[in-house]
Amino acid sequence: MTWNDLVALFPILILALGSAALLMLGAWWPRGRELMGLGSLVAGLSVLAAIALTPPVTEISGLFGAGPYARFFTALWALVAALTLLLSRRYGAERRFSGGEYTALVLFAAAGMALLSGATSLVGLFLGLEAFTLVLYILIAFHREDDAGAEAGLKYLVMGAVATGFLAFGIALIFTSTGTFHLPEALSGLDPASGMRPVALLGWAMLLLALGFKVSLVPFHLWTPDVYQGAPAPVAGLLATGSKGAVFAALLGLTAGLEVGWDDLVPLLWLLCVLSMLVGTFCALRQDNLKRMLAYSSIVHMGYALMALLAAGPTGRTALVFYLAAYTAMTLGAFGVLTSFSRASGEAQWLGDLRGLGYRHPLRGAALTIFLFSLAGVPPSAGFIGKFAIFIAALDAGFIALAVLGVLASLVSVYYYLRVVVVLFMSAADDVPLHGGSRGEGAAIALCALATLGLGILPAPLLDLIAQLIP
Amino acid sequence: MIVPMSHILAFSAALFVMGLACVLAQRNLIMILIGVEIMLNAVGLTLVGASALWQKVDGQIFVIFLMAMTSAEVSISLAMVVYLRRRKGTLEADAFDGMKG
C-alpha cells in the first residue's frame, strides 16, 4: 500500500478512523447525544472528502476502486450514516443506547458499505460485505430491553452466518476455477473453453445465493419482515437502504465485467426477479404493521432493481444507480418519520397507532405521504422516474414480460401504500399524541423529502452524472 | 500437487454439506454456530488447495483474512448467545418465534 493508495482511500479512512476515535472518546465521555452529533459531523466530512478530493489512483491495492463510481457510493452511504445518526439522537437517548458504541458501529457500517460498492476484487467484496454485516448483527439487537430486537438479531445472525458461508465458498470455487480474485479476470472461468466451467458455475450460484440473501430476494427473503419489525427504526432504515444498495452496487460492478457466462445467469436472475415481485406484492397486501409492510415492499423494490440489472447496457445500469439513490432517499425518509413518532415506551409501527396523525402532525404526515407515494411510483416523485427508467430499459432489452409484471406490481402496490395514507388522515380514535419530534429528526426528514421530490421534478442532472460514472 | 484438486474439492464439499446439515438439523444455538464454523473451514481448505493448484499465494492470504473475520464473527455470536440466554433462559432456536405474519 503506497501513500497514493491511502490518499485515494481518504473518505473511507475518515469513516473508519472516526469510528475508532469516537469509540475511544465514548469510554471517557459517555454523552450519547453529543457523540451521535459528532458522528454525523464525521460522516458529513467524509461526504465532502468523497466529493471534493480527486483520487490519485483509480484502484487501491487491487482490492477496491477509487474511481467516480466508488466515490459516488462512498458519498451516498456516508450521507445515509450521517442522517441515521441524526435520526438516532433522541431515539437513542430515550432507550439509553450507549452513544460511543452506537455511533462507532454506524460509521463503521458506512465504511463497509463504501468498500463493498467499490470492490474490484472478490476479496474486497467479501471484506466490505462482512464489515457491515457484522456491525448490523450488533445494531439490530442494540436495544437491550426489547425482546423483539433480540429475536430479530438472532434471526439475522443465524441466516447471515449461513449466507457468509455460502459467499465464502462461492468465492473459493471461483478462485479455484481461475486462480485470481481480481475482477473481471476472475470471471473468465465461466468461458465454455475453460476446463473448470462447472466449478465456476457452482461458485456463481453460491455467490448469487448469498448476495440474494443480503438484498432479500425471494426465496431468500424469510428473515426480512421479522428483522425490520424487531430492529430499532433508525437501524432498520440503515439496513433497508445502505446494506441492500451497497450489495446492488457491487453486483453491478460484478456483472459489468461479465462478458461470457452472462447468458447462463440470465434465466436464474429472471426467475428471482419474478418471484420477488410476486411474493413481495402478495405478502405486503395483508400487513397491518408499517415496518413489516415496508419489508415486503422492499422485496418488491429489490425485484425492480434486479430487473434493471438484467436489462444491462448503459440504460439499465444508469436506471439501477438512479433507482438506488431514489430508493435510499424515500425509504430512509419513511423510517425517519417512524423514528420521530416513536416514544420511550415504544414505536408507532401498527396502522392503528397512525390514525389521524396527518391532522395532529401535519408536516410529518405530509412527509410520510410523499415517501409512500414515491415508493408507489406516483409522479412527480423520484420513485416514479426511477421505475419509469427501469421499465424503459427492460423493454429496450427485450424483457417484456418482466416490464409488464413490474407495472402490474406497482399498480397493486398503490393499494397497500394508500391504505397507510388513508389511515393517516382518518379521524383519531383516541387523543394520545405521539412524540413531537426533535429538530434533528425534522431536518433529516426534510432533506429526504426534498431529495424525493427534487429527483422527481428535476432528474436530469443526476441521470447525466450517473451516465458518466457507471463502469 | 500430490493430492489432486478434485479430491480436495470433494472433501471440502462434503465438509461444507456436513456443516450446513448441522445448521439445519440442530435446534441449539451453539450447535448451529459450530455448523457455520465447519462450513467456513471447508472454504479455507478449498482456498489453500486452489492456491497450491495455481501456485499463487493469494488464496492463502485470503484464508488469513477469513480467519480474522471468523474470529470477529464468533465473538459477536457468542456475545449474542450470552445475551439471548439471559433474556429467555434458553438457547433453543424454536423459543424465538414471537414475530409472525
Helix content of chain B: over 70%
Strand percentage of chain B lies at under 5%
The Rg value of chain A, from CA coordinates, equals 21 Å
Termini separation of chain B:
53 Å
Note the main sheet of chain B: none
Task: Give the SSE order of chain A as H and E letters.
Answer: HHHEEHHHHHHHHHHHHHHHH
Helix content of chain A: over 70%
Arithmetic mean pLDDT of chain B: 91
Characterize the biggest β-sheet of chain A: 2 strands, antiparallel
How confident overall, as mean pLDDT of chain A? 91
What are the segments of chain B in which pLDDT stays under 50 over at least 5 consecutive residues? Answer: none
Number of helices of chain A: 19
* Secondary structure tally: strands of chain B: 0
Structural class designation of chain B: mainly alpha
In short:
The complex is a heterodimer of chains A (471) and B (101). With 471 residues, chain A is an all-alpha fold. Helices cover 75% and strands 1% of the residues of chain A.
Protein architecture, described:
The complex is a heterodimer of chains A (471) and B (101). Chain A has 471 residues and is mainly alpha-helical. Chain A is 75% helix and 1% strand. In chain A, helix 6 packs antiparallel against helix 7, helix 10 (233-256) packs parallel to helix 12 and helix 16 (382-396) runs antiparallel to helix 17. The longest helix of chain A is centred in the middle third of the chain and has 32 residues, at 147-178. The radius of gyration of chain A is 21 Å and the shape is globular. The model of chain A has no long low-confidence stretch (mean pLDDT 91). Chain B is mainly alpha-helical. Chain B has a single domain (5-89), classed as Orthogonal Bundle (Helix Hairpins), CATH 1.10.287.3510. Chain B is built from 3 helices and no strands. Chains A and B meet through helix 6, helix 7 and helix 9 of A and helix 1, helix 2 and helix 3 of B.
